[in-house]
């Protein structure tokens, strides 16, 4: 945070503290309701809750879950955040109708980045239609052609590596995934001709989303100004591309084309602004999440060599059946690799906290059978990063053990729905999950078939300071080119 941000943040905090004080007085004077409210996290008044949260949400949740159980409320300035932890209560979080628990209020901070007229800037009925456009753009028939492009991008990227060398795996996978996302989502024009310009603009958009942006998304700080300039320029670039595609009558195999061809129920076509906004939303949803997961997958397979070897063996079996070919259906046969990715993502979900806003009073029942009334106006939160490691669901939850998902164990299924929530679930479950797995599998099957690796830097840690929690520092690996064949 720079000096200007600090000052504005402090002023905001002062304002919020005044509000809180007024609320405290009002709550003391107000008559007691008969509601069975969840227990409250004890913290010093006014900004105590905020400080505990900022010191680390996950340690706070761990401590309070042990003391208070699966439902508890944290007072943060003038807000009440009620946590739902564990599959028994998070089912309510994921399945509740929009009229009861909605996303729009809590994810408003995305609006200046995604732009007007899309996703959290529109009513639920329009948003649902826009999510239908995502669903259609990510159908199996579309995924098949995206996979072909992913494979070409991976082959091309790694062909530039030498016979041996040392690289930062995190940096390399981030770059490859930007290229792939450009090709499959943003389209050929950006990937082939405008890649550097558009990447730089997306970089500014990305940097414009900071922790402070969640509270004050329009604060006039330099990062937000750069974000707004970049957003305007991206809109110009896509307007030109969309017009040129429409006038040429040419159709491409990418998400941009799907959004151009999408129609609302009333027959209206998408506007240039909406198409641009939806593409930005797709990139924000899928790019960092996928590159972080591909890096953790590599880091864990290299640390626990038995899983690397098992994944190599699987590649050999698949090559025995299909030769060197890689396509959607062949990637779908890679169960060992799938479990290695899924387990890395269980331990390190990039979205550590999911939020909703409560529009109505409702009741939840905890694992122990306690009933709590959740009032209208609370923010409701659940945490994949914490819930994915609950010991009553996962044996040795902090251990990397991809076989926990194998037939016969399937710990996530045995414990019931919403036990594994890296992709959320229910009403707003991730629409890009199959795309993400295919992309990470396309990269890792190429690497497993063409290289040997050794992790030469210490095993990485989480970077808790990022909005999308990623890998801290470099992940240095030594590689040596080798061609995997069915007999070696
Ligand atoms: C490893 C990669 C990914 C992870 C961990 C991930 C995680 C998530 C999570 C946790 C949610 C639910 C948010 C909530 O309930 O508040 C979500 C929603 C969503 N994701 Fe993903 N995601 C990934 C990749 C992708 C990709 C590649 C795309 C698209 C290309 C995508 C598109 C979406 C969309 C459109 C939603 C909103 C669904 C709705 O609200 O109905 N995601 N994702």
Automatic annotation (TrEMBL):
Q: Provide the alphabetized UniProt keywords.
A: Heme, Iron, Lipid biosynthesis, Lipid metabolism, Membrane, Metal-binding, Methyltransferase, Monooxygenase, Oxidoreductase, Steroid biosynthesis, Steroid metabolism, Sterol biosynthesis, Sterol metabolism, Transferase
GO MF entries: heme binding; iron ion binding; methyltransferase activity; sterol 14-demethylase activity
Q: Where does heme bind?
A: 430
SUPFAM superfamilies named among the record's database cross-references: Cytochrome P450
Q: Transmembrane stretches, by residue range? A: none
| Functional pathway | Steroid biosynthesis; zymosterol biosynthesis; zymosterol from lanosterol: step 1/6
Q: Which reaction does it catalyse?
A: a 14alpha-methyl steroid + 3 reduced [NADPH--hemoprotein reductase] + 3 O2 = a Delta(14) steroid + formate + 3 oxidized [NADPH--hemoprotein reductase] + 4 H2O + 4 H(+)
Instruction: Please classify the protein's predominant subcellular localization into one broad category.
Output: membrane
- What PROSITE patterns does the record point to? CYTOCHROME_P450
Q: Which GO terms describe its biological process?
A: methylation; sterol biosynthetic process
Q: What is its EC number?
A: 1.14.14.154
Q: Kind of enzyme, top EC level?
A: oxidoreductase
Q: How does it sit in the membrane?
A: Single-pass membrane protein
User: Cofactor(s) for this protein?
Assistant: heme
Q: What are its GO cellular component terms? A: membrane
Function in brief: Catalyzes the 14-alpha demethylation of obtusifoliol to 4 alpha-methyl-5 alpha-ergosta-8,14,24(28)-trien-3 beta-ol.
Its family? Answer: Belongs to the cytochrome P450 family.
Name of the protein in its database record: Obtusifoliol 14-alpha demethylase
State the organism of origin: Ensete ventricosum
Per the UniProt record, the lineage of the source organism begins with: Eukaryota, Viridiplantae, Streptophyta, Embryophyta, Tracheophyta
């Amino acid at each position: 945070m720079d000096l200007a941000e600090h000052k504005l943040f402090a002023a905001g905090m002062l304002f919020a503290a005044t509000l809180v004080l007024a609320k405290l007085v009002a709550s003391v004077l107000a008559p007691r309701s008969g509601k069975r409210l969840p227990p409250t996290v004890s913290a010093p008044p006014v900004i105590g809750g905020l400080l505990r949260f900022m010191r680390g949400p996950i340690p706070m949740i761990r401590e309070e879950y042990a003391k208070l159980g699966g439902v508890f409320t944290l007072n943060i300035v003038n807000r009440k955040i009620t946590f739902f932890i564990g599959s028994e209560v998070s089912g309510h979080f994921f399945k509740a109708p929009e009229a009861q628990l909605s996303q729009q209020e809590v994810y408003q901070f995305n609006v200046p980045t995604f732009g007007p007229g899309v996703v959290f800037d529109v009513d639920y009925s329009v948003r649902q239609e826009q999510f239908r456009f995502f669903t259609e753009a990510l159908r199996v028939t579309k995924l098949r052609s995206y996979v072909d492009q992913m494979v070409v991008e991976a082959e091309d990227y790694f062909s530039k590596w030498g016979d041996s060398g040392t690289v930062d795996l995190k940096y390399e996978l981030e770059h490859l995934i930007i290229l792939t996302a450009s090709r499959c989502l943003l389209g050929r024009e950006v990937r082939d001709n405008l890649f550097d310009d558009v990447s730089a603009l997306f970089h500014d958009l990305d940097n414009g989303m900071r922790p402070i942006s969640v509270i004050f998304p329009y604060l006039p700080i330099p990062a937000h100004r750069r974000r707004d300039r970049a957003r305007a320029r991206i809109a110009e670039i896509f307007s030109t591309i969309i017009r040129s595609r429409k006038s040429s009558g040419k159709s491409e195999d990418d998400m941009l084309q799907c959004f151009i061809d999408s129609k609302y129920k009333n027959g209206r076509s998408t506007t240039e602004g909406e198409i641009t906004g939806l593409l930005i939303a797709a990139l924000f949803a899928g790019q960092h999440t996928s590159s972080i997961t591909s890096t953790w997958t590599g880091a864990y397979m290299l640390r626990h060599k038995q899983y690397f070897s098992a994944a190599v063996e699987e590649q050999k079996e698949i090559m025995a059946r299909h030769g060197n070919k890689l396509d959607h259906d062949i990637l779908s046969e890679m169960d060992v690799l799938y479990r290695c990715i899924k387990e890395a993502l269980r331990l390190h979900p990039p979205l550590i906290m999911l939020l909703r806003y409560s529009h109505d009073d409702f009741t939840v029942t905890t694992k122990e059978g306690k009933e709590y009334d959740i009032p209208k106006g609370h923010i409701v939160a659940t945490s994949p990063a914490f819930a994915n490691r609950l010991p009553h669901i996962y044996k040795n939850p902090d251990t990397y053990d991809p076989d926990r998902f194998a037939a016969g164990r399937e710990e996530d299924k045995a414990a019931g729905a919403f036990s594994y929530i890296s992709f959320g679930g229910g009403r707003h479950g991730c629409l890009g999950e199959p795309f993400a797995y295919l992309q990470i599998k396309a990269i890792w099957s190429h690497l497993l078939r063409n290289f040997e690796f050794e992790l030469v830097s210490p095993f990485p840690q989480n970077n808790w300071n990022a909005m999308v929690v990623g890998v801290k520092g470099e992940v240095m690996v030594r590689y040596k080119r080798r061609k995997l064949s069915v007999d070696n």
